[in-house]
Design goal:
UTP25_C; U3 small nucleolar RNA-associated protein 25; 2 domains; UTP25; nucleus; two-stranded parallel ribbon; U3 snoRNA binding; mainly alpha
Length: 147
């Protein structure tokens, strides 16, 4: 079935908000839509061709589109989309916020204990981990909370 995507031909500002959440859902849908942006329309749709900028007719619209991708963190998929589809002739930029963290605000020292459990195979590792937790670790936590 042929799809009519001519309405995507004149997008000048692309904003992808919450790209990290979209990457957990249907990323291929987003890449398909972005791939269809700024292509020449297949039909005229009653448009006055004299009003269209020459850069659109020459197929250079994607180099003038402003693309903004917002995400809480960076993934390889977002990186690929940024490098492959954000091609503005003025260049591109990545901004990242650095979070200072909260570990220095912990007032009481927290003791971390690492425990090893045995599993017969990698396939049984999840079940062995759950069994070890319910048999060995959870009773200790339960006893310490109850007094």
């Amino acid at each position: 079935k042929e799809r009519d995507v001519d309405y995507l031909s004149s997008i000048e500002v692309l904003v992808i908000d919450h790209a990290d959440i979209i990457s957990m859902q249907n990323w291929s849908f987003l890449t398909t839509v972005v791939d269809h942006l700024n292509r020449l329309p297949s039909k005229q749709h009653g448009t006055n061709v004299m009003r269209i900028r020459p850069l659109y007719l020459d197929g250079h619209a994607r180099f003038y589109r402003q693309s903004i991708i917002l995400s809480s963190y960076l993934t390889p998929e977002i990186n690929n989309l940024f490098n492959r589809n954000c091609l503005n002739y003025k260049g591109k930029m990545k901004l990242a916020c650095e979070y200072k963290g909260v570990l220095q605000k912990v007032l009481l020292p927290v003791r971390q204990i690492y425990e090893r459990f045995d599993a017969d195979s990698i396939i049984q590792a999840d079940d062995a981990r759950l069994e070890y937790f319910t048999q060995k670790i959870f009773p200790k936590i339960k006893d310490s909370v109850q007094g």
